[in-house]
Write a structure and sequence with these properties.
Blueprint lengths: L1 H5 L3 E4 L3 E4 L3 E2 L15 H13 L4 E3 L8 H10 L7 E6 L1 E2 L7 E2 L3 H14 L5 E6 L8 H13 L3 E7 L3 H8 L4 E5 L10 H10 L2 E2 L13 H10 L4 H12 L12 H9 L7 H8 L1
Parallel strand pairs: 3-4, 4-5, 5-8, 8-9, 9-10, 10-11
Antiparallel strand pairs: 1-2, 6-7
Helix pairs in contact: 2-3, 2-10, 4-5, 8-9
Pfam families: Aldo_ket_red
InterPro entries: AKR (IPR020471), Aldo-Keto_reductase (IPR050791), NAD(P)_OxRdtase_dom_sf (IPR036812), NADP_OxRdtase_dom (IPR023210)
GO cellular component, one term: cytoplasm
Length: 282
C-alpha cells in the first residue's frame, strides 16, 4: 500500500534523479544526543529495511551522526543497495560530545569527511553530498574546493547545502552547482518560507529537517479537527501539509519504530483540501 502511494509523489533531483518525496532521515538511529551507536542495532536495521520495503528510496544521513556510526549502520542494513536507492549524506560538522556541533569548513576536514563517507557507505559515489553548515572562520571557496574536486573525480554526484540564506546559496552556486537545500522548516516553524519559494523557483529540492513539529498549542484544536476528518494523527497532517506546501519538498522524517515509520509513510496518502491547507497555513 505504502509503496503504491509513494509513486504518486515523485521528485527528480536536478531533473534526473527520481526519488519518492517521502524519504527517511537516519539521525535518530544513533545514541543520545546523536552521539555514539544506536542502543538496539538489530531494531535499527529492521527500521531501515522496512523503510526501503515500504517504498522509501531517499535516505538522509551525515558523517556527524554518531559521528560515523549512522553511515556505517545504513550500509550494514541495506548494502548491497537497491538500484534506485539514493543516499544523501553531509559533512562539515565537528563533534566533541552529545548535542555538541561545531561547523568545520577546513578543506582537509571536508576531504576526510567525503573519503570517510564513501568508505562507510560502501560506495564509490555519493548521490547527494551536503555541506552541513557554512563555517564563519573559513571562506566557503576554500571549504567547497575539495567538494568540487570530488564532483570532478566522480566521487560526488550532486551537492546540496544546509541551513543557509539565499545569499549563501548564490555564493556557493558560483563555485559548484547546488541542487538542494536542507533548512529547519515545519508547520510550526516557517522562518525559511522564502527559501522554500526560492529553491522551487530555481529547480532545487527543499529538504526540511525536523519536519514533524506540528505547531504551537494554539493550533492544536484546528489540527485535531483536520486529523480527525482524515482519520489521521497530528504528525501525519504535519507531513501532508508539507507535501502540499510545495512540489519540491522532500520529507525525511526519522523514527526508531517500525510502527511509527508506517504511520509516516501513510501520510503520503492524505490529500488535504485547499481549505484545510489554508486553515493550517494561517
Amino acid at each position: 500500500m505504502a509503496a503504491t502511494i509513494q509513486q504518486q509523489h515523485i521528485y527528480k533531483i536536478n531533473g534526473d534523479l527520481a526519488v519518492n518525496r517521502l524519504g527517511y532521515g537516519g539521525m535518530q538511529l544513533t545514541g543520545p544526543g546523536v552521539w555514539g551507536d544506536v542502543a538496539d542495532r538489530d531494531n535499527a536495521k529492521k527500521v531501515l529495511q522496512a523503510a526501503v520495503a515500504a517504498g522509501v528510496n531517499f535516505i538522509d544521513t551525515a558523517e556527524a551522526y554518531g559521528p560515523k556510526f549512522n553511515e556505517a549502520l545504513i550500509a550494514e542494513a541495506l548494502y548491497p543497495y537497491k538500484e534506485d536507492l539514493v543516499i544523501a549524506t553531509k559533512g562539515g560538522f565537528g563533534r566533541s560530545g552529545p548535542n555538541k556541533w561545531t561547523p568545520n569548513g577546513n578543506p582537509a576536514f571536508i576531504t576526510e569527511n567525503i573519503e570517510g563517507s564513501l568508505q562507510r557507505l560502501k560506495t564509490d559515489r555519493i548521490d547527494l553530498w551536503q555541506l552541513h553548515r557554512f563555517d564563519p572562520n573559513v571562506p566557503v571557496e576554500e571549504t567547497l574546493a575539495p567538494v568540487t574536486a570530488a564532483v570532478k573525480a566522480g566521487k560526488i554526484r550532486y551537492v546540496g547545502l544546509s541551513e543557509v540564506t539565499i545569499e549563501q546559496i548564490e555564493q556557493a552556486a558560483k563555485i559548484v552547482p547546488i541542487v538542494s537545500v536542507q533548512n529547519l522548516y515545519n508547520l510550526g516553524n516557517r522562518q525559511w518560507e522564502n527559501i522554500v519559494d526560492y529553491t522551487a523557483s530555481k529547480g532545487m529540492a527543499f529538504i526540511p529537517w525536523f519536519p514533524l513539529a506540528s505547531g504551537p498549542e494554539s493550533m492544536a484544536g484546528k489540527i485535531g479537527a483536520i486529523a480527525k476528518a482524515h482519520n489521521a494523527t497530528t504528525a501525519q497532517i504535519a507531513l501532508a501539509w508539507l507535501l502540499k506546501r510545495s512540489a519540491n519538498i522532500l520529507l525525511i522524517p526519522g523514527t526508531s519504530s517500525v510502527k511509527h515509520l508506517q504511520e509516516n509513510m501513510d501520510a503520503a496518502g492524505i490529500e488535504l483540501t485547499d481549505e484545510e491547507f489554508d486553515a493550517l497555513s494561517q
